[in-house]
Amino acid sequence: MIKRYGIEGGKGTGGQSLPFAKAVAADGWLYVSGQTPMIDGEIIDGGIIAQSQLAIQNCLDIVEQAGFSKEDIVHMKVFLTDARYFQSFNKVFKEFFSDCPPARVCCVADLVVDCMVEVDMTCFNKKFK
Predict the structure, then answer these.
(1) 121 in Cβ contact with 25 (< 8 Å)
(2) Where in the sequence is the signal peptide annotated (predicted)?
């Protein structure tokens, strides 16, 4: 069985409706779509620290809404717009995941919204199999 979360009206920049689910669960796995440092369709002001905190928190909120926990996160993908943000992002990452760090990839990429970071998460919990 596949369950989709957040298909009923996710909003992107400028209030546009997003054409994808915030997350999809299947056979114990949860795949969280990439999250940016956005509140109500607007990217927050602030540097890489504030933007990293919100992007991660936005993912964690979706994880929790789907019934998973931080301990269920097995992998993250991180997209930074500048390699110089790497150390600052790692400090934020450690604040969130010091006791249960997931595997991770981090790369530099142009993002389709005007922010410094985007993250996604993959979770697993056998109770959802």
Answers:
(1) no
(2) none
Shortest CA distance to 34 belongs to which of 2, 1, 64, 10?
10
Per-residue model confidence as pLDDT tens digits over 74-97: 999 999 999 999 999 999 999 999
Token pair listed for 126 = 């056998």
CATH of domain 2-128: 3.30.1330.40
Domain ranges of the chain: 2-128
CA neighbor of 129 nearest in space, from 59, 25, 23, 24 = 25
Judging by DSSP bridges, how do beta strands 73-80 and 103-108 pair with one another? parallel
Give pTM, 2 decimals.
0.95
- Angstrom distance (rounded) from CA 86 to CA 21: 28
